[in-house]
Amino acid sequence: MKITPQCVVALTWTLKDTLGEILDELDEPVEFLLGGNDLLAKIEERLQGHEAGDTAELHIEPENAFGDYDENLVFLEARKLFPAELEEGMTFDGAALPSGCTPGIPLSLIYTVTEIYPEHVVLDGNHPLAGIAIRLALKVESVREASEAEIGQGTLGTGFFRVEPQAPAPGNTTLH
Questions:
Q1: What does the pLDDT average to over 60-89?
Q2: pTM for the complete prediction?
Q3: Domains of the chain by range and CATH?
Q4: How many CB atoms lie within 10 A of CB 67?
Q5: What's the rounded mean pLDDT across residues 56-76?
Q6: CA distances, 1 to each of 29, 37, 40, 52, 146 (Å)
Q7: Nearest CA among 88, 92, 87, 130 for reference residue 109
Q8: Are 146 and 33 in contact (CB under 8 A)?
Q9: What is the tens place of the pLDDT at every residue in 88-102?
Q10: Is the C-alpha dihedral spanning 99, 100, 103, 106 positive or negative?
């Protein structure tokens, strides 16, 4: 079966930056819904007409991937607002940030703790790959028709590098 809009593809890939550093590898096939919210538009465009066993390589600039880095999405917050067990790399759903954070901070983003100081915490609302041009070598492992339910959902839940809110840790309503 050839890849068409509104089908399910299982992919493996190697994702690199422009310097050749590996950012992600999918060794085991993962299914994605084409025509939904699972893959970047440039990847969907490139896959059209391919079939199982085909390979493709793409170079995607930031504006077609995860956007340019926006320094206005970096916030310095008081360390005392956050749990003692805070670590760099932890993420917070913007809607669940502790009260007392910067007024007007966008609540629709996921924030990554990028630095911790004795008095302050740096929260970054940019996607981890914002501002990075990427190179993707992918292989189509399988193709199948999408069910009506899958099409209705618009996703198989395996979005391409989407940062999703995770369930809160037990006993903690803000840490993810």
A1: 95
A2: 0.76
A3: 7-66+129-153 (3.10.50.40), 71-124 (2.40.10)
A4: 15
A5: 95
A6: 17, 22, 22, 8, 12
A7: 92
A8: yes
A9: 999 999 999 999 999
A10: negative
